[in-house]
Amino acid sequence: MRVLVVTHNYPRFPGDPAGAFVARLAEGIQARGADVRVVAPATITDAPPTPRAVRVERFRYAPAFLQRVGYRGDARLKVAASPGVAVVLPAYVLAFRRALTRAVRDFAPDVVHAHWWLPAGWLASGLDRPFVVTSHGSDVRLLERSRVLRVLGRRVYSRASAVTAVSEFLTRDIARLVGPLRRVEAIPMPVDVALFESGRSVAKANPPRLLYAGNLVASKGVDVLVTAFGILRRQGVPCALKILGEGPDRPRLQGLARDLGLDAQIEWSGFVPQERMPAEYGCSTVTVLPTRGQAEGLGLTLVEALCAGSAVVGTPAGGIPEVIEDGRTGLLAADGDPEDLARQLGRVLQDAELRARLVQAGGEHVMRRWAPAYAVERFWSIYGSIAGR
Fold first, then answer.
1. DSSP of 292-345, one letter per residue?
2. Cα dist. 207→162, 237, 240, 265, 316 in Å?
3. Per-residue model confidence as pLDDT tens digits over 81-115
4. How far are the Cα atoms of 74, 113, 117, 145, 168 from residue 77, in angstroms, in the given order?
């Protein structure tokens, strides 16, 4: 069986977290017995390609310094609208289409798997090949922006042979935004549990460390976490905070920390290679994801943290409750409420018995649902039914 994976987001160099879950699935499908090929855009980074078992064909669409359209997640439209980059959008789309058409001609896939409905799913929908489209969250949020995008999204989803999303929350959101489809199945992306379990052997930081790892954008609620951390410090709860990530909100967040007198107590870090993340999670007592509203397709950092032996606290945003079953695998705090977030963090920090119970149950939960074998077998079955094998 030949499977062509189409994505705007795929690891560009060793340890790159961009699209790592897409790569993990592609590699698992190939190990299961399929011949897999990937089409993805080139990027501004001229680093050596990641050595992988799966063949990756990266298409160029502009001079290297302008190749900024892919690999941006929620920021895709903002980046596309920025000066200089918008100019290359037509070239990006045309080059993507040409690369995809060429791969179909040369590789003759039995099935095409498009990750994110835009742009990959939209481009795959114009091929004379059965295709699967998987939504990861940011593409579902695009559907909320305009009626035109909803019409376009519905056309893509309705033409697909199968539609999946990474959480039950997203399957419901797709139906809400584009109307009922034949079926939208929730299949989580695989996590490299063996890699992240190595974090369990790392000594915990002293004082106990809170960790946020992710994009620094308003929807993630990191300002709520900074404020909650200040509350804990005023209450005399021993703890430190590390904020690991990048994004446009960083100056505002650092200003908030200064205003609260916390700048010396917070460690700031840019993104690190994926192989370093198990240690980041492992030495943290609690990993926090305080997302606002519905802007969280799942919350994969929580899954990774539980694998590494960190307790987790989040909000009931989007798909987070599918990872955090409140009181069993982690604790949920009220959305946008720093007082409640401080209260839940304090419970985990100060109650060793509760913390151990949450980490144990959380680890078992993620092993059942996010181990690579689970997703590989589910998608193998889908591919086989589409390809008639």
1. -TT--S--HHHHHHHHTT-EEEE-S-TTGGGT--BTTTBEE--TT-HHHHHHHH
2. 48, 10, 6, 11, 28
3. 455 567 788 999 999 999 999 999 999 999 999 99
4. 8, 23, 14, 11, 25
| Amino acid letter for position 254 | Q
- Preceding omega of 251 cis (within 30 degrees of 0): no
What residue type is 2 in one-letter code?
R
- Could you check whether the bond before residue 119 is cis, i.e. omega within 30 degrees of 0? yes
Could you give the CA distance from residue 223 to residue 185 in angstroms, rounded to a whole number?
34
Residue intervals in the chain for CATH 3.40.50.2000? 2-190+371-387, 193-369
Cβ 316 vs Cβ 293: under 8 Å: no
State the DSSP H helix or E strand holding residue 387, giving kind and residue range, or none if neither. helix 372-387
Classified by CATH at the fold level, domain 193-369 comes out as Rossmann fold (3.40.50)
Query: In terms of Cα–Cα distance, which of 248, 201, 200, 241 is closest to 224?
Result: 241
Residue 48 confidence (pLDDT): 53
Tell me the residue type at 188: P
Residue 368 buriedness (CB in 10 A; 0-12 / 13-18 / 19+): exposed
Cβ-contact 174, 137 below 8 angstroms: no
358 and 134 Cβ atoms separated by less than 8 Å? no
Q: Tell whether domain 2-190+371-387 is in CATH 1.25.40.10.
A: no
Tell me the pLDDT tens digit for each residue of 328-339.
999 999 999 999
What is the per-residue pLDDT across 71-82, written as a single tens digit (0 to 9) for each?
A: 754 434 444 445
Q: Are 349 and 229 contacting, i.e. CB atoms less than 8 angstroms apart?
A: no
- Write the CA distances from 378 to 28, 39, 116, 141, 155, integer angstroms: 11, 22, 18, 25, 24
